[in-house]
Every structure is written in C-alpha cells, then in structure tokens.
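Below is how a single chain appears once it has passed through the pipeline. First comes the sequence as given, then the structure the pipeline wrote out for it. We keep one example in the README because the format questions we get most often are answered faster by looking than by reading.
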Amino acid sequence: MTAQLDDQGRLRHLLSLDGLPRPILEDLLARAQALADGAARGGTDLRHVLAGKAVCTLFFEPSTRTRCSFALAAQRLGADLLSFDASTASTTKGEADLDTLKTLEAMGVHAFVVRHGRDGAVAELAAAAGPGTALLNAGDGRNQHPTQGLLDMLTLRQAKGGDFASLKVVIVGDVKHSRVARSDVQALRALGCGEIRVCGPAALLPDDDTLDGCITGHDLDAMLDGVDAAIMLRLQRERMADGLVASLDAYHRDYGLTARRLRRAEADAIVMHPGPMNRGVEITDEVADGPQSRVLQQVANGVAVRMAVLEALLA
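Resulting structure:
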C-alpha cells in the first residue's frame, strides 16, 4: 500500500506513477479517452461532477501547458478554481510552503495541483495534508510528472492501440534531468511495453536505477531503427553551463530528430515532445509540424487526462 492509495486501494493523491497498479493506470486512460471529445469541445455536460469542490493550482515554478490544462480540466468539471502564483504571494515574504498549504486548506480547498522546483516537495505536502485533501503532482524538480506520463500514454494508445507489449518506444535526450522521462519510463514499464529504449549523451543519462529494464545507447540512428514512437525531450540549455553538452550545434548533429533520421523508424511511427520545444536543437520544424507529430494531440490530451484524475480523486 503506497501513500497514494487509501485503505480500499483507491487513489487519494497522485504523486508518481511509480508503483501504481496497472489497473489504476488503465482505468485512468480509459476514462480520459471517454472524456477526450468533450474536453476538446469544452462541453458543459460534466460541470456537475465537481460542483462545490475547490481546486487550487499551487505553482512555485513557471508553467504554461500544465497550469492552463489543469485549470481547464477543473473548470470543465465544475470545480471552483483558485490560482496561486508564488511570485506574488506571501511566500515572497518568507512563508513556508506547508503554511501556504494549510492556510488554503483552512479556506476549504479540496485539492492542490502543485508544481515545485524541489524533488519530493509535493509528497512532503501530501504527507501533511488533512484526510479530505488531495495532492496532485504537476512536476517536482527532476523527480516526477505523473499526468504528463499519463497523457503521453494516452497519445500512444490512441495511435497504436492498447497492446503495449508489441511496441518499441525510444526516449531521446536529457533523461538525467527530466521528470517527464522518469514518469514515461514508469508508465511504459507498468503497461508492459515490449521494448523501452533510451538514448542520449552519456552525461545526460541517469546513473541510478531509473532505466532498469531499458535498452540504453548513444547512437540515435541505431536506436531509432524500427521504433513505433519517439519521445523527444527538451534539452535543458542551462546544463551546457555545467559542461554536459559541448554546443547546441553538436547536440543537434548527434541527437536532433530530422526527417531523414525519422525514416529509420517504422513508417507509421509517431513523434512526441512534452514541450516547450527547442526547434532546431532536439527536433526540426519539418518533424515537429509534420504528419507523424503528435505534439498538439498531447496538449489536447492533457485536459482529458487531468479531468480523469481530478474526477477519480474528488468525485
């Protein structure tokens, strides 16, 4: 039993995909798929689901896609939405994160969608939350980003069907510092993906047990051979200051996804990217905007996935 589940095995928090039972993941994906059309249209038929519930987006780091996606998801389920911006809140006066949580909890907030720069910060807040409060990890440090992992799996499922055992997926780039990569690997592993490949410079691959069971390598051309999907990761340019990447040009030469390289994958392979994209670095315009790209579909799926998660936790 993990801290994410209650004593009946249901979700109480969503902090990580690591260790979540496969049936829970599959149920969330199935529900998100059922919600996908309505989420895209912005229909109002589900606004009764979370009527009277208050959801706070508690972001200590900047965000565009995740924050807006969660806000839309909460509103389309009828929740009251509070938006917290750490740059203009009492945290700038020295208020502790836990005090901020408890203050808003005392106002009657039922769920907190938290993005934080420190690994494990959301789990610490969840441990201190009251029994009726749900915490959703919207990205903590380089640790976890579970709803991004779910929306990536939904995008893959829509393109390739539910039999993950037959799939070969490659994750490319700065895996070491990517919370998205960790959540994607955990989800792919839990759903029984046939082959998980991970490719990047040696300095940008983790040296812990994150990649257990994965095929790792540094030759992108070889790692693309026959894959059904390529998940490209943002090169975190600040890592260049640490000497982990020689130059943007060198990175693009060795690890940038071009149309020529993509031809090594299966003809119907899809390309994903969590955004924001560094065009001309990890991916070219031709690929990002091409027929195999599912980048905007991922964004759209984010609303449906986050609706499914909020519903599971609060409805």
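The radius of gyration is 19 Å.

See the next section for the split statistics.
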